[in-house]
Amino acid sequence: MMMKNSTLDDIAYKLREAKTVLIYPHVLMDGDAFGSSVALCCGLKKSGKKVTIIPEGDEGVPSYLAFLQNQCISIREIVSDEPDVCIAVDSSDTSRLEGRLDRFKSGKITINIDHHITNNFFADMNYVDTEASSTGEIIFRLLKAMDIEIDKDMAEGIYVAISTDTGGFQYTNTTKNTHLVVSELFDSGIDLERISAELYENTPYEKLKLIGEILDNVEDFCDGQAVIAAATLKMMENTGALMDQTEGIIELLRSISGVEIACLLKEVSDSQIKVSLRAKTYGDVSKIAAQYKGGGHKKAAGCTVYQGLEEVRKLMKKDIATYLQTVTNNINEQETR
Ligand SMILES: [Mn+2]
Fold it and tell me: 301 vs 24, 43, 169, 331, CA distance in Å?
């Protein structure tokens, strides 16, 4: 695989030529994956193409993002058996396409648009910008490269992508360029009040109860530099919450004073745990996730481990402790030099 970017102009050219396009957001769509898909779907449809979004399996749009759906959005529509282009958005590698990989490869051309540092350039044409706050920020540039006028529907998809991936413009992936893009989105007439209310003032009560149960069981270690917690199937049963409602809870754990690394274990089954990892300042949790074939960014990464909850908890505590020890030693060495 060649780890080299195509230009956005070359990708725009291929998309302009295409008549049928399938868009593949990563499994368990988040605001960036779905918002980017929405913007791209609207842009391509308005330029006369047959286009649809293909989420994993029977995965639905998360309830907090449902408001983004508009008349231009089509999901799992039959477009073509041999689509001209299959385009993956916000997916670092093909494992994020899970059961859709063969279908993805059925595209005459495959394209990969992403901002994850662990992206392995799995498509025919790749555009990975690790400086971009979000895939949405790249989609903005791609639509412009296609000479598509960004309307309100596209702008709202991009805004949601950027806002959710930057934690509401708090995280260090937020740049001057991010704000320049957002300033242009305002020209397209985004309804900020509605978006903010839908994204941030809309917590289902069962999610709040779930947060309560998770926080009741947080464990801190390494002198409070790390915390680990679990969202268990039992908690889902107790609270009526769904596993996709754990979105944002890991950031709450990281926000604890003195914590550098936070870890949230999501129990998919008694032998499958999804692990979310976050670092606050100097940590690089993509290194921990990579040990389990996971991926992500320095400050936000994840992996899946096929063992029981308590085994995975032990593994993660050990790996995080080892990692923090190594980093601390390096810092001390640098200081004595
Ligand atoms: Mn993203």
Answer: 20, 30, 19, 22
Is pTM beyond 0.85 here? yes
Provide the residues around ligand 1 (an ion) whose CB is within 5 A. Answer: 32, 90, 134-135, 165
Ligand 1 centre and the CA of 275: distance in Å? 17
Residue 229 · residue 261 · CB < 8 Å: no
Residue 14 phi/psi, 5-degree rounding, is -60, -40
User: pLDDT tens across 39-51, in order?
Assistant: 999 999 999 999 9
- Pairwise CA distance, residues 4 & 107, whole Å: 20
Nearest to 297 by CA among 178, 167, 207: 167
90 Cα–ligand 1 center, Å:
5
pLDDT at 336: 61
Q: Residue 247 has which token pair?
A: 């979105």
- Supply the DSSP string of 100-166, one letter for each residue: GHHHHHTSSEEEEEE--TT----SSEEEE-TTSS-HHHHHHHHHHHTT----HHHHHHHHHHHHHHT
d(CA 337, CA 325): 18
d(CA 130, CA 144): 19
CA of residue 223 to ligand 1 center, whole Å: 31
Gap between the Cα atoms of 299 and 171, Å rounded: 9
